[in-house]
Amino acid sequence: MIIAGLMTGTSADGLDLVIAEFRPDPISDTEPTPSFDLVGADPTTLTVRILAERETRFDDRLSADILRLLEPADLPLSLVSSVDARLGRFCADALSELCADHDLTPDLVVSHGQTVRHDITDGQVTSTLQLGQPAFIAERLGVAVLSDVRSRDVAAGGQGAPLVGLLDSLLLSDAEAPTAVLNLGGIANITVIAPGHDPIAFDTGPANALIDILARRITDGRQSYDRDGALAAEGTVDEDLLAELLTEPFYARPAPKSTGKELFHAAYLDSYLESHPHLGENDQIATVTVLTARTIAEAVRDHEVTTVIASGGGTRNPELMRRLGEELGEGIALTSTDEAFGLPEGSKEALLMALLGWLSWHGLDGTQPSLTGAIGPRSAGRFTPGDGPLRLPEPLHRRPTRLRLSD
Q: Which helix H or strand E contains 26, and what residues bound it?
């Protein structure tokens, strides 16, 4: 089964696309690989081959409007509706182009959309909203689209995030020592896999969110992120400001927990910076870069992890990665998903979307209570039919326990 996964994260700078083929391993050495549409296959190992991948940047207007929606302000419903439609068309165009370039036709598309609200009260997620109308994708490609993959988990009392823990746990099902898989998007999240324990996943705090805000300010909007970490590398960490930032109550909350730009936004950052009016801009960005590194390292140490496997846009920031290595110390190895799994850092969350699509298509749960805090596992998302009626295969009985990437 060929599935396209589309992901736009909290950095709100572009769309990651993956087209992947999912196949169960043969039940025995003498039996052929069964079709995904056959009931009873129930593979323990799922083999995935990435057929195509791409990152497509948003145009300036779309990016700016999304960032407006991420700020804690009352905005016109017309902007919400406009972004929903424009992002849906953008996803349809980007995927159509990728399919044409590689002569591929997916059986299913999974589109995460852009999270614009993820509201939390007293540690409980009360609502989550992703924009990017899937009907435009279904109309353009003529295939079914799975979307809104977080809401069912939230309805079941879960955080609805991070969802990537499922992919991490399948990739590391044979881990022999406590390992953390880290994603550095706008928000940082980790999955901790330890032998003999259920996996856990949670957001640790900002990854690029605060760094990006300052990068835009320092460059007067010419850069939307700290390219190569050069801005932070020129600054000096202000320990007083760092200590104040670390008093944020979110960091001390137990897992599972999630957050977003509803908390870590420009006004939030300014509430700390206003007491340091003479601090240089490069010193500011150096300090929030270390904030990201330290909050991750403290979360990792709490779980006695020996290896951290990193992915996401933050891995392209050498200053952030250098600071993270320093904060982790010599006893914890820092590597990447490319080195550990052969999975490009920028493709991981789009591949997660494709995996959730395969699971939901076959009637299997895409969430796990130990990862999100829900009262039970739930199937992820809802389907928008393609050109014809939606016909799902007979459900499988058990979720695979291992995922293997092939060339």
A: none
Nearest to residue 335, comparing CAs of 308, 301, 312, 365?
308
pLDDT at residue 50 tops 50: yes
Q: What is the pLDDT of residues 24-41, one digit of tens each?
A: 875 433 334 444 443 444
d(CA 280, CA 92): 43
9 is in an annotated binding site: yes
The tokens 């709490």 sit on which residue?
A: 302
Establish whether 132 is an annotated binding residue: no
Rounded to 5 degrees, φ, ψ at 16 are -95, 130
Confirm if 143 and 41 have CB atoms less than 8 A apart.
no
Residue type for 274, please?
E
Is 2:48 a contact under the CB 8 Å cutoff?
no
Is residue 110 within 8 A of residue 353, CB to CB? The reply is: yes
> Is 387 labelled as part of a ligand binding site?
no
Angle at 312 between CA 112 and CA 320, to 5 degrees: 145
> 168: annotated binding-site residue?
no
Is 320 within any annotated ligand binding site?
no
Mean pLDDT of 315-324: 97
Name the nearest CA neighbour of 213 among 261, 265, 260. 265
16 is in an annotated binding site: yes
Tens of pLDDT, residues 65-83: 999 998 888 899 999 999 9
Q: Is 246 annotated as a binding residue?
A: no
Dump pLDDT digits (tens) for 279-305. 999 999 999 999 999 999 999 999 999
Query: Domains, the chain, ranges and CATH?
Result: 2-166+362-405 (3.30.420.40), 175-341 (3.30.420.40)
How many whole angstroms separate alpha carbon 219 and alpha carbon 223? Answer: 6
Q: What is the mean pLDDT of the chain?
A: 93
Q: Give the pLDDT of residue 341.
A: 92
- Taking each helix axis as running N to C, give the angle between helix 281-302 and helix 209-218, from 0 to 180 degrees, rounded to the nearest 10: 170
Residue 215 backbone dihedrals phi, psi, to 5 degrees:
-60, -40
To the question of whether residue 10 is assigned a binding role by annotation, the answer is yes
Tell me the pTM. 0.92
